[in-house]
Amino acid sequence: GAVVSQHPSWVICKSGTSVKIECRSLDFQATTMFWYRQFPKQSLMLMATSNEGSKATYEQGVEKDKFLINHASLTLSTLTVTSAHPEDSSFYICSASMFGSGWKGYTFGSGTRLTVV
Amino acid sequence: GIQVEQSPPDLILQEGANSTLRCNFSDSVNNLQWFHQNPWGQLINLFYIPSGTKQNGRLSATTVATERYSLLYISSSQTTDSGVYFCASRQGGSEKLVFGKGTKLTVNP
After folding, report:
1. Burial state string for A18-41 with b = 16 or more CB within 10 A and e = fewer than 16
2. In terms of CB atoms within 10 Å, which of A52, A109, B14, B31 comes out highest?
3. How close is the nearest chain B Cα to the Cα of A30, in Å?
4. Rounded to 5, what percent of chain A is helix, strand, coil?
């Protein structure tokens, strides 16, 4: 149980284009989803927290207009990197959890490696 | 906010050896998790262990919440155990997960 699917696994795009990454909870309803960014050989950096049906909460220093997050349903959140530039190249990971009684932690997607050329 | 420190930062083992990874946290926590990030980037839940001891095969974990640390034990290590091990915890009543910097484990054949 508690499977999170993230798609695509990797993507190469041209500078100036936009890229959408999907994160789905397959066997549970995720009240909250999180988006992280990870640079090589570093830990995960939280970018934003999204709750179904409401605006995402971005961490300090994260450009909300560049990283658009939509949490349209309890099983789907999307991250769109708009007008991507080479410095946006990174590994992006989503996670999901169903908070409430019996909470057992977070489940992570398999990540998306974005390369902007 | 809460600080999570992991040690050692790097660990190199021969296959079959045992190891202990440590996670210290600066404030009381009640929802510590251990993850393994494999070479392809996938983060795999190992343990949700707010306190006490749990075992899963060759891996076990112990959290002593009153002393603000957690330990991950790997016995009879295999090359497939290689990767980065992270501990993380929610910060107080927040839903946010705070990660340590990880321990990079390399198991050589």
Report:
1. ebebbbbbeebebbbbbbbbbeee
2. A109
3. 13
4. 5, 50, 45
Question: B6 near B21, Cβ under 8 Å?
Answer: yes
Tokens of A84: 């991507």
Read off the pLDDT band of B86 (50, 70, 90).
Answer: very high
Interface of A with B in 80-99 (CB under 8 A): 91, 93, 95, 97, 99
Tokens of B70: 């957690």
Residue A20: beta bridge partners? A80
Q: A90 or A100, which is more confident?
A: A90
Letter for the amino acid at A21? Answer: I
| pLDDT at res. A19 | 98
Cα distance between residue B81 and residue B4, in whole Å: 22
The DSSP 8-state label assigned to residue B15 in this structure reads T
Find the residue in A nearest to B34 (Cα): A105
Residues 54-83 of chain A with CB under 8 A from chain B are: none
Query: Where does residue B100 rank: exposed (0-12), middle (13-18), buried (19+ CB within 10 A)?
Result: buried
Nearest-angstrom CA–CA distance, A81 and A83: 7
Give dist(CA B37, CA B86) in Å, integer. Answer: 8
